[in-house]
Amino acid sequence: MSGGGADLHGMDPEVFREHVRSFQFWLDAVEGYLEGTEYGHRPGTPEARFDPRELDRLVTVLCNYCVGETAALEGAGGLIAIAPNRASKVFLATQTVDEGRHLEVLVHRLRELGVVEPEREIERRASPKLVHFKRRLLEFVHGRDWEAALFAQNVILEAMEFAVFHRHARSADARTREVLEGIIKDERRHIGFGENELGRRLQGDGAARERLREVRRELDPLVLGSFEETLASVGTPRGEQVDLSRSYVQAVERLGFA
Question: Is 66:118 a contact under the CB 8 Å cutoff?
Answer without folding.
Answer: yes
